[in-house]
Design goal:
The complex is a heterodimer of chains A (414) and B (296). With 414 residues, chain A is mostly helical. Helix content of chain A is 70%, strand content 3%. Chain A has 17 helices and four strands. Chain B is α/β, with parallel strands linked by helices and 296 residues long. A six-stranded mixed beta sheet of chain B has the order 6-7-8-3-9-10, with helices on both faces. Classes of the chains: A mainly alpha (414), B alpha/beta (296). The interface between A and B is medium-sized, with 26 and 35 residues.
């Protein structure tokens, strides 16, 4: 019986305009991010290359240099990027605050502000600022050396002062310092990284991981619409009472709807990730590496499926509870908060809804944090099951008592 | 399994401070049973209690010997046609009925047999592919009755099924209900007296959550025997007559009007005795609600 209901629900999803919008938006978003097949970053590094990319470093000296570099550049432009409550807010300081900030930098570097600015200008003058690549490279390689006597603790205290001046959500919080910084890679490091990439990711793993990073962003929002549409369809079509009075259990009704939506939401994800993986699979073979042909399935199941599950489960729960579209607003806010709440674009999985790994490779760093990702995804899987259970319970209550939370509030207002 | 009988004892249902049902007691036997009452009388609430869609506040309700609290058992033995029944607009008649049959726990073999049979029964056999969104009100109601009986329930509850139907559809629908009621209980809840008159012998009249009358149509008619009169009045006098008497029919003819009055005594000398109908009895009952003890 459950199987029949499930198939009928899948058919319902397939007939929904919202589902086709879901597929189109998902594919368009992913194409815009990963449309071009770039294999250059997946080739063995050659000695004498201009750049080998960057790697993440938690070494205190490196952290101080890069964080100070960022602070100098933002102070120079008097424009500080902050993300209070997850949303971008540019901060401009007044003269007094700017002077205070300059003195913090002077305190950390042991140099005068003018001297620091002169060094910065000299550094950027050396690079080709007319191309995006040149400007980016100059930015990556720019660093500000702290004074020799500055301890890491003193540095942290100074950054705390900087945070107080700028306000909440700046890039100088302890969370950002702990997340590490990007530093240019050496040839040896690049070769080691490539060996790890070939051994552990077998090329395709790194590609689908980047796919999961982008897909995770859009999948924190798109499935909400599927969930809300399904739950409101009964009300809109005036089917609720005819369904409520049938003998099938609330579990079978809700679980079949939920599972059908999860599967249908996952289907285009699985197909797209497989299509994205294909050219890289071919590339791996051309450079003599046996690719991980099932990487697309492993990553999408572990990384993206729990996200689809929790987003749908929460939208089912809120929509059954309120019988309106408020779930869209709550969950979009949650998704945006998750995107901007993370300290960096790689790792720091914590309990963020969206797991980020915005890099093609950086394999050893990922594998060292893999366990954290598993905990994160396991947590959301369990939470999704919990929300599904709550939805079933509330649906049965509605069925027996004929009242909704919204209905009760509405009645009391009268 | 108990007998095909519904027992309602001292049933009350409150929505906050509002009492929708007030100590209602009823016994309903096999066949058509009409539940009559004005809008807001508590008919839909009573129907919902019987179909487990609303929890009672107090009292006892059992269907075929099974207490209404045993939701799963009750849902298996009841079929419900809600007041505003519809289905997903993008489904065809067959698909919609098949979907609800699955929700009633019917296996594929049974559905393949019963779905076309039910569609034929409600005269939708030729329309099995017609989308619900393209159906007329009458077709939807017929689909509604098909979904209410597809799992062969012992009790069928239909709430205001003929509201908004044209006369032809209404007659067809009533006949269909009578046909179905041969071997089960069919409770027809309505505020349209004509529907009850045409289909039910046993009835109850509900008003403001209380049972005003419980008995047969003949007993209801008995209460107005010798109390119906017709008389001719001028159009000018009509408002005054309406204030003094219970007027149940007016046929205007130029400056005069032929009216039907329900009164305990002949209203005027020239008034002629008339044959009362169920609507007259219902109107008389409603106008004397406070003074009318529940008749069993």
């Amino acid at each position: 019986m459950f199987g029949t209901l499930f198939l009928k629900e899948c058919r319902q999803v397939l007939r929904s305009m919202v589902y086709y919008l879901y597929v189109v938006i998902f594919v368009m978003f992913l194409s815009s991010q990963m449309g071009e097949v770039v294999t250059a970053d997946l080739d063995r590094p050659k000695p004498g290359q201009e750049s080998y990319g960057s790697t993440s470093s938690h070494e205190e000296g490196a952290v101080m240099e890069k964080i100070l570099a960022g602070l100098v550049m933002e102070t120079y432009h008097n424009s500080y990027a902050t993300y209070p409550m997850g949303f971008y807010r540019g901060v401009t300081l007044n003269e007094r605050e700017l002077a205070e900030m300059a003195s913090i930098i002077e305190e950390c570097t042991g140099k005068s502000w003018d001297e620091i600015l002169e060094n910065m200008e000299n550094h950027f003058a050396k690079s080709d600022q007319t191309t995006m690549e040149g400007a980016l490279r100059a930015q990556i390689s720019y660093s500000v050396v702290p004074k020799a006597s500055l301890s890491y603790e003193e540095f942290c205290e100074n950054m705390e002062k900087a945070c107080e001046i700028i306000g909440a959500g700046s890039s100088y919080t302890q969370k950002h310092l702990d997340a590490g910084v990007g530093v240019p890679m050496t040839y040896e490091q690049a070769v080691e990284e490539f060996e790890t990439l070939c051994g552990k990711d077998r090329i395709t793993g790194a590609v689908v991981r980047l796919f999961c990073d982008y897909a995770g962003i859009i999948l924190s929002i798109l499935p909400i619409f599927l969930g809300v549409t399904r739950c409101l369809r009964d009300k809109r079509a005036k089917v609720s009472q005819a369904v409520f009075s049938r003998s099938t259990s609330a579990f079978q009704i809700i679980a079949s709807r939920y599972l059908a939506n999860v599967c249908m939401a996952f289907l285009p994800v699985a197909i797209t990730i497989f299509v994205v993986q294909m050219p890289y699979q071919y590339h791996a073979r051309t450079i003599g590496i046996t690719p991980d042909a099932l990487a697309f399935l492993k990553y999408s199941l572990v990384w993206l499926l729990p996200e689809i599950m929790i987003v749908l489960a929460v939208s089912f729960f809120i929509t059954e509870l309120t019988e309106n579209v408020i779930s869209i607003f709550i969950q979009v806010f949650w998704a945006i908060g998750s995107v901007f709440g993370a300290a960096g674009l790689q790792g720091d999985f914590g309990f963020h809804l969206i797991a980020r790994w915005n890099a093609l490779g950086n394999t050893s760093a990922f594998w060292s944090q893999r366990q954290e990702l598993f905990w994160n995804r396991g947590f959301y899987f369990a939470l999704a099951v919990l929300f599904l259970g709550l939805t079933v319970g509330f649906y049965e209550k509605k069925r027996r008592e004929g009242e909704t939370v919204y209905g009760k509030i509405f009645k009391r207002r009268k | 399994m108990g007998s095909a009988r519904i027992e309602i004892k001292d049933l009350s249902k409150n929505y906050g401070k509002k009492q929708a049902l007030n100590h209602v007691s009823l016994e309903i036997e096999q066949g058509m049973f009409g539940l009559l009452g004005p809008n807001g009388a508590g008919k839909t609430t009573l129907m919902k209690v019987l179909t487990t869609l609303t929890k009672k506040s107090s009292g006892q309700v059992s269907l075929c010997g099974i207490p209404v609290e045993q939701c799963n058992e009750i849902r298996r033995m009841t079929g419900y046609l809600p007041q505003d029944f519809s289905m997903y607009g993008n489904m065809g008649a067959y698909e919609a009925l098949d979907y609800l049959a699955v929700l009633s726990g019917m296996d594929k073999k049974k559905r393949v047999e019963k779905v076309p049979e039910m569609l034929e029964k409600v005269n939708l056999g030729d329309q099995h592919k017609t989308k619900v969104r393209a159906m007329s009100g009458g077709m939807r109601r017929r689909l509604g009755i098909a979904q209410a009986i597809i799992h062969d329930p012992r009790i069928i509850v239909v709430d205001e099924p003929t509201a908004g139907l044209d006369p032809e559809e209404r007659v067809r629908f009533r006949n269909l209900l009578c046909e179905i009621a041969k071997d089960r209980i069919v409770i027809l809840s309505t505020h349209i007296v004509g529907d009850i008159e045409a289909t039910c012998e046993n009835i109850a009249v509900l008003s403001q959550g209380e049972i005003l009358f419980r008995g047969t149509v003949s007993q209801l008619l008995e209460s107005v025997r010798g109390k119906a009169y017709t008389m001719e009045v001028s159009a000018m006098e009509l408002p005054m007559v309406k204030e003094q008497f219970l007027v149940t029919g007016i046929l205007t003819n130029g400056s005069t009007a032929n009216i039907k009055i329900i009164a305990d005594e002949p209203p005027v000398k020239g008034a002629k005795p008339a044959r009362p109908d169920v609507e007259d009895a219902y109107m008389y009952l409603m106008s004397h609600a406070s003074a009318f003890p529940c008749r069993e």
